[in-house]
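Hi team,

As requested, here is the filled-out complex form for the zinc ion run. I kept the field names the same as last time so the parser does not choke. Let me know if anything looks off before we queue the next batch.

— J.
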Amino acid sequence: MVETAAPGTERRRLRVRGTVQGVGFRPFVYRHAVALSLTGFVCNDAEGVLIEAQGPEPAVAELCRMVLECPPPLARVDEVRTTTVAPGRGDDGFRIVESTGHGAASVPVSVDVATCAACLAEVDDPTDRRHGYPFANCTDCGPRYTIVRSVPYDRPGTTMAGFAMCGPCRAEYDDPADRRFHAQPNACPVCGPRLRLADAAGAVVAEGDAALDRAVQVLVSGGTVAVKGVGGYHLAADGTDAGAVAGLRRRKGRDDKPFALMVADVAQARRLCHLDAAALEALTSPRRPVVVAPRRPGAPVADGVAPGLPELGLMLPYSPLHHLLATRCGRPLVMTSGNLTDDPIAHLDEDAAARLGPLVDGVLQHDRPIHIRCDDSVLRSAGGRLQMLRRSRGYAPEPMRLPVAARRPLLAVGAELKNTVTVAKGPTMVPSHHIGDLGHLAAYTSFLQAAAHLCRLCGVEPEVVVHDLHPEYLSTKFALDLGIETLAVQHHHAHVASCLAEHGRTGPVLGIAFDGHGMGTDGTLWGGEFLLADLRGFERVGHLAPVALPGGAAAVREPWRMAVTWARAAAGPDAAAALGRRLDPRAPQVLALAERHDVLRTTSAGRLFDAVAAIVGIRGRVSYEGQAAVELEALAATVPPGDAVPYRADVDMTDGMLVLDPAPMIGAVLDDVARGRPPAAVAAGFHLGLAAAVASAATDLAGRHGVGTVALSGGVFQNVVLSRAVEVALAGAGLEVLVHRHVPPNDGGISVGQAAVAAAASRR
Ligand SMILES: [Zn+2]
Ligand SMILES: [Zn+2]
Ligand SMILES: [Zn+2]
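And here is what came back:
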């Protein structure tokens, strides 16, 4: 039967590509289509979102305009292709059609979204029924990933299941024209979650607005409060109060690692940091990451917030509770993950009471459970560019496109430190939130939960599990015990692949992977690697000269060990012994160890930075991984590039293998330090010298192997002074350079690279 439509009726098919799944796109289309009295449908499929809309031509055109010009806050529309199709009369209104996945991993829930302007206006409006309500949200904002327990994503499947909506909330929820239509966490002061303040012993001392007031009093008088947020608990303190910050640092057991600050608004943020356009955009985006940016001289912040660092990590409030707290306190608040040292962030109330209660003067909590813990994401703003350091709340579980579709569903379990996992199916992969350092039992438990939850959420039953080569990583052990097909991906290949994947590339490239270390195919610890790589495989074509890693993990905590080891390699035993006398009384034992043939060797670039930092006198031991290197970079950044004199390294080619030997640089560094050259000049000379050597090695290798593209990955490339100098030199040599933007260059990106490699392998 051929159906005919009313005259003047048009039907258009819109094929929308970009970041359009898991960002509330379908409800957005639905709401506007219904408001415009259109019929048709919207669905997710393997290519993005597909819409068919039918009605009077102006109304259809208006829907097209909205899709293009004002999509939901987290969507990024790359392309809309519109075709006119024959109208029909078969539609019964406008519908959200179940995903036609075509075998792609689809995420039925969006990332957590910061409070929108409309909700904030209500919270601030004394006449609104949500005035001062810390849990206001709507279809455009609010918690999502952190509250979803099961799919499909509807209220009974979330931690809001226990809250029955009152009449007015239900009416909003049911009205297609309302901003809260099908907003699963919809709530108000009558029917929704409530705030309470508990004392250190767990007794509730205030509720509702009184709880908020008491918490503010505690904070402004120098106390510490545990605050239950969106993805977990923060520990909060007055960021301008040196005593409060020092107290928090002492109680948390965190020596020097910088604390993030929450500021009430952009004006306050600008008083603390230099923020360029990109930094401001990230800071105010609905994803609300922590943005690390250069601090202003004299910024009114206690020294203990970020000891010895020229940058501060800032974020804006992302829930109404944060908004109320930051506004009423009227000063920057330290908001650091609620945990002890490197444990995962506390997200369950009982756990928070037990672990955090003894550390604080009050616990500000509420009765909306957090199902999945999710730390704040961290971006670094430097040199006009943003770099992802930790991709978590506000970004996970947003799917990414695989350069090569996976033939079989897979789970990639990442590395050991900064662990994430990634699931993939068809053309799509979904990286998890930041899980943490698996060496901690609590983090490992969290890893197990996250992997299972992400698979369930995305409808992926993995047939292949992808893991690191390192046999001692808990993620590797987990993978091998899973009883399904396994694939091992070398650590640095995964780094390079993660960079390829975020650019939608397959290679071949010359990959430069510089990091702390990862297991090499020869059983030594690699960490300064030049790999000729594509997604399917790699060939190691160059590396830093290997040196002993005396003491293994101790060498990571105590950079002076690498300093004497490198001094010995560069200038001989006497120079090393002399340096050792200056740095640590245990140096003779370490040097004896370094001479043995059975000691583990490494090509680690991260440990090279540690060594130089210790020689320059920055520090002989660190309280967090990479601290010495971060401080060395900060020192180097104080010297204008034109003023630095680069040290020279050796680059040798033997049997087709390039070896970049920094020994001559170390020798020069030792001489200059002995001569009393300023540490900043030495730090800058080291950065520029290494960058020049790396770029010349890469140019040579790219030419030899006929590739025109270089990919930079690994945690060492978080170093902007190094990265910039390498990029400029490579571009000057006519090479294309790929750097990370959306995936962390550090081990947080390993699972993404593993997934991309495994997907490509499945196509063999
Ligand atoms: Zn809202
Ligand atoms: Zn209500
Ligand atoms: Zn790594």
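Two things worth flagging: The mean pLDDT is 93. The radius of gyration is 27 Å.

Thanks,
J.
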